[in-house]
UniProtKB/TrEMBL annotation:
It comes from Pocillopora damicornis. One of its GO terms (cellular component) is GINS complex. It is found in: Chromosome; Nucleus. Gene3D superfamilies: 1.20.58.1030. This is DNA replication complex GINS protein PSF1. The keyword DNA-binding does not apply. Component of the GINS complex. Belongs to the GINS1/PSF1 family. GO terms for biological process: DNA strand elongation involved in mitotic DNA replication. Its main location: nucleus. Keywords: Chromosome, DNA replication, Nucleus. Residues 89-161 form the GINS subunit domain.
Length: 224
């Protein structure tokens, strides 16, 4: 028996011989066990493998492949559902299998997008309104737009309550801290109007609330 061929088996009976044709698909187990849903699952695994506090590159190519697979599955189901209406009841199992694959792909895609969004939200609280370039480079256009809108929503809320929620993410031990500048930043004005020149390797004694964002962005480091 060759793969992809027809297996012909004769069944005898009072009404005479009947020929049953069974189509054997090559590597059936591989196609149904590995192809359907595997690409979508790889997206989830890819995100899980990424380090905490980072957002891996948006895998547009793999997402497109998953969507193409879903389109094929949907079109096949549309054709076979039309045939079942005409009485072809033997197609139900295939329809159910493809529908389950569609649902699995959808869940994986939504999980991928949603968990990337959660990571971006955490980064907003860690780095402030400006994301590091290496992280921003990994986002798609829609994710950058979402991050901008989240920034605006958070800023609007903080103005409403009159409190900067991004300050003092950890309970401060003192109001002033000593910091070292890690790069040439230029002039920096504190809330009381004092202007400082932040040059690489310069050290300053500043209110924690004034420099916390610069510490998160990697411009200053807290000297312990």
């Amino acid at each position: 028996m060759s793969d992809g061929g027809l297996v012909r088996r004769q069944y005898g009976g009072q009404s005479g011989g009947h020929e049953l044709k069974i189509c054997i698909t090559k590597n059936f187990g591989e196609i149904f066990g590995k192809m359907f849903g595997d690409k979508a699952l790889e997206l989830v695994k890819e995100l899980k493998r990424a380090m905490e506090g980072t957002v891996p590159p948006y895998n547009e190519d793999l997402i497109r492949q998953v969507l193409e697979e879903m389109k094929i599955l949907f079109e096949q189901n549309q054709r076979e559902v039309a045939l079942t209406v005409e009485g072809e009841t033997g197609l139900f199992s295939g329809v159910h299998l493809r529908h389950a694959s569609l649902e699995r792909n959808k869940r994986c895609l939504l999980s991928y997008i949603y968990n990337r969004m959660l990571r971006m939200k955490d980064l907003r609280w860690e780095f402030g309104t400006v994301l590091p370039e290496d992280i921003k480079y990994n986002l798609c256009e829609q994710e950058v737009q979402w991050f901008t809108k989240y920034n605006k929503s958070l800023a609007t809320y903080m103005r409403t309550v009159g409190l900067d929620l991004t300050q003092d993410m950890k309970p401060p031990k003192s109001l002033y801290i000593e910091v070292r500048c890690l790069e040439d930043y230029g002039e920096f004005e504190t809330e009381d109007g004092t202007v400082l020149l932040l040059k690489k390797n310069s050290q300053h004694f500043l209110p924690r609330s004034h420099c916390e964002h610069l510490i998160r962005q990697g411009i200053l480091e807290h000297i312990l």
